Amino acid sequence: MRFKKALFLLLIAALAVVLVACGGTSAEEGEETTESEDTSSENAESEGDSESEELEGEVAIDGSGTVYPLMSTMAEEYMVNEQQNVSVEVSRAGTGAGFERFLNEETDFNDASRPISEEEQATAEENSIEYQEMKLALDGLTIAIHPDNDWATELTEDEVIGIFTGEYTNWSDVNSEWPDEAINTYGPNENHGTYEFFYEDILGEEPLAENINLQQEYSTLVSLVAEDVNSIGFFGYGYYESNQDQLQAVGIDFGEGAVEPSLDTIGEEGPYANFTRPVFTYLNVGMAQEKPQVMDYALWVMNNVSDFAGETGFAPIPEEEIQSQVEELESLQQ
User: Of 92, 85, 45, which is closest to residue 65 (Cα–Cα)?
Assistant: First the structure.
């Protein structure tokens, strides 16, 4: 009897040890699970903060009227769907006038339809302003006429130069079968990079015709060409594309037949290459390092510009050029 009682007590004690051991293991596992969940929660919260980091403040942009449709469209998208507390103001004083403000540190970016000039580079160095060139897209300079003009629908490159330098004053001077009517020439004024590109790269710095009508506002320029059957003007492809109901693009013969500007022909090595140019925005590096919203906008623009180029009349640049520029911008953050 004593032996049975002793055996019974021994079994109870053994069972108690097993239960304690099992209970301890469960508790530890529970603690580990809780710690794991807490860590995951912290990571998720951290990732969420990174993805939805809210910025605030202002971004100031001025410069090219040619680049304006692209940059203003992107600014609107950024403010509506990316950073609702950041205000991006885009103006269009023209490339040259915009650089004056940019080099006086009145703006964070300057849009440009031509590269920064040597004189402007010297001013930047004198004012200790570090800048980063951002190549955005490609534009095709377009020669436009009135829709009822059915004679000058195709011109050679030399005929374009002759018309805008005043060598030809009447249409019949270009071709004896064309009307003996005065040619009325139009273009953007000296504030614009488009003027400088046309004067330097296409006219070879030959003076423009004395009676050319130069305008500050592209909307005015488009209206003047659209209302004059003897008109001929030049501006960026985007302004022609968005006003095709009022204008007609001239096909340019570069030696192998006339080529009209389009998103398919505009390219640095394409059939419209002679009248193709890159467009830029220039970033004030000091402003970007001082103001997070400026750097954020620069990176967002560079990562998304190809999605907006076509709809605003620009041909996109190759993806490898985009990625290279993104990496350069990211290096400025370090």
Answer: 92
Q: Which residues on neighbouring strands pair with residue 88, listed in sequence order?
A: 59
Q: Where are the beta strands (DSSP E) in the chain?
A: 57-63, 86-90, 109-112, 131-140, 142-145, 154-156, 184-188, 213-215, 231-235, 248-249, 251-253, 258-259, 276-284, 315-316
239-252: pLDDT as tens digits:
999 999 999 999 99
290: closest CA among 54, 125, 123, 108? Answer: 108
> Residue 225 in contact with residue 146, Cβ under 8 Å?
yes
Q: Please name the residues in contact with 89: beta carbons below 8 A apart, sequence gap of 6 or more.
A: 58, 59, 60, 61, 75
Per residue in 87-110, pLDDT (tens digit) is 999 999 999 999 999 999 999 999
The structure's pTM equals: 0.81
Cα 77 to Cα 64, 115, 296: the distances in Å are: 19, 26, 14
Neighbours of 39 (CB within 10 A): 10
pLDDT of res. 257:
95
Tell me: the pLDDT tens digits for 145-200? Answer: 999 999 999 999 999 999 999 999 999 999 999 999 999 999 999 999 999 999 99
CA-nearest of 220, 248, 232 to 92 is 220
Contact call for residues 143 and 155 (beta carbons, < 8 A): yes
Specify the DSSP class assigned to residue 160: H
